[in-house]
Input
Amino acid sequence: MAEYDPNFKDESGLLTVFLGLAVLVGMSALPATIAWVQLLG
Output
């Protein structure tokens, strides 16, 4: 079994929040990006 380490800091929560925000902003901007590509293309 794994030992308990009281000094271990789990930083995956911050990465998850950052990735979630990036996906949320990216999905929100997707229609605008498609419109710009069609307009310029």
Q: What stands out?
A: The first helix runs from residue 12 to 40. The helical segments are 12-40. The chain has a mean pLDDT of 88.
